[in-house]
Amino acid sequence: MSLHGSCACNNIQFIWRCDNSRLTPRACQCSYCLAHNAAYVTQAGSPVAIHINNQLFHATHQHGSHSAVFHECTKCQQVVFVSADIEGEIYAALNSQCLHQQNQLLAPVKRNFSQQSAKQKKQRWQQNWCKPTTITINNTALPKP
């Protein structure tokens, strides 16, 4: 199935092809994710295509272990997704608040990963996050970090 999503102003949009009909968002308990009301959905091996319409309203942030990159729309102030480059592959987790098909979501579960090392986080992301992930800005591929 294809699920669609975007920030409130549609500057950052995505199409996600996943197999799950019911998704359980994981609500990270770090201060950044709590402040942005972010809860993430993923499925290993599921492709996601992300398109950024106007790069002027796209901001990235890193915090914690600095292993992941949080992508925000500065126009509507929403975190849309988080990505990580692991061994040359881009993995992503999508903010469930940005999914258009909210009826596909179960209640979020709280998760705290602050005790994991950067290596443990990357291993978990490789096992659980969406891949392949393509990110384009006005039909130009975003360079890998």
Write up what this structure looks like.
It contains two helices and twelve strands. 11% of the residues lie in helices and 39% in strands. Strand 8 (78-86) and strand 9 form a beta hairpin. The protein has a single domain (2-141), classed as Metal Binding Protein, Guanine Nucleotide Exchange Factor, Chain A. The termini are far apart. The mean pLDDT is 90. The chain is mainly β. The longest helix is centred in the last third of the chain and has 11 residues, at 118-128. It has a five-stranded mixed beta sheet, with no helix packed on it.
Domain module count: 1
Question: Which spans of ≥5 residues are poorly predicted at pLDDT below 50?
Answer: none
Number of helices: 2
Rounded mean pLDDT is 90
CATH architecture: Beta Complex
How many β-strand runs?
12
Classify the secondary structure makeup into a structural class: mainly beta
Strand order of the biggest β-sheet: 1-2-5-11-12
SSE ordering: EEEHEEEEEEEHEE
How large, in whole angstroms, is the Cα Rg? 14 Å
- Judging from the principal axes of the Cα atoms, what is the shape? globular
CATH C-level category: Mainly Beta
Largest sheet: 5 strands, mixed
Helix content: 10-25%
Strand content: 35-45%
Domain CENP-V/GFA: 3-113
Family: Belongs to the Gfa family.
Keywords: Metal-binding, Zinc
InterPro entries: CENP-V/GFA (IPR006913), Mss4-like_sf (IPR011057)
